[in-house]
């Protein structure tokens, strides 16, 4: 069963805006840093639209045929005609077998396409989407002999996600595509949403989830590396498994934090014992907790 989506005021606002634009026939693009809930939000909105959902994960190796479809093998057809009993007539034909790629499948049937991290695919691969978004036709002429233009089903819609701060393995979003979608920037989760998600996903009570979230948010604000909500969910889930409390005097809590996010705080190759590291993380934590109370 997929994880239940937690709707806070922050998410409701984004959902209402996105559903409005999608129902008016425009594609929506959530653009923001890692772990800010873009994929979860896109999938939830896709489900709200009430159409089957097709997902696609951007990939640098993709060619247009990986998205649109292609020919896989040949089909041989043989007809033997013995209508006049003394005469045998044989007819043989070979033709290629076309299979729909995910985009074609969604366009043909009016499904909702969630194209996650789509800037990981090359711009020339994503170009097949330009006419889909602008003219609502899918051009298959370079790939298929028979059907060359597919009229896009009126219920077809697309939700894109991308992370502009990722520098490895992503491509610049081409202007032509940028021009055809409504980009909603996702700057980061608000505290209420983050606590609600961490509490909901781990089962920890609100106050305990809030303590973990405040620490991670403090580190995110102050360190070069930015631990995302995934770190908070991890710490909370581990504590909840054995009923441990997120208190700074609890050595298990400090050790779990150390293991999950220690590498985000300490850079130097620390030639110190685990106890010294734990002491340091305790000092760090106190700083973040008190900063958050200000
Ligand atoms: N509203 C929500 N309800 C429940 N869980 C959520 C919600 N938003 C985010 N999450 C959880 O937070 C984590 C990060 O969310 P998600 O994967 O959607 O982020 P993302 O912005 O797509 O990240 P990335 O750019 O790294 O792919 C996931 O474990 C996800 O299930």
Strand and helix map with partners:
Elements: H1 9-23, E1 27-31, H2 38-48, E2 53-57, H3 64-68, E3 69-81, E4 89-100, H4 102-109, E5 112-116, H5 123-126, H6 128-134, E6 137-139, E7 149-151, E8 157-162, H7 175-178, E9 181-185, H8 191-202, H9 206-222, H10 229-242, H11 251-265, H12 274-293
Parallel strand pairs: 1-8, 1-9, 2-5, 5-8
Antiparallel strand pairs: 3-4, 6-7
Helix pairs in contact: 8-9, 8-10, 9-10, 9-12, 10-11, 11-12
Pfam families: AAA_5
Domain AAA+ ATPase: 24-189
Family: Belongs to the CbbQ/NirQ/NorQ/GpvN family.
Could you give a short description of this structure?
The chain has 294 residues and is an alpha/beta fold.
What does this structure look like?
The chain is elongated. It has a five-stranded parallel sheet with strand order 2-5-8-1-9, with helices on both faces. Strands 3-4 form a two-stranded antiparallel sheet. The protein is built from twelve helices and nine strands. It is α/β, with parallel strands linked by helices. It folds into two domains: 9-68 and 99-185, 3-Layer(aba) Sandwich (Rossmann fold); 191-293, no CATH class.
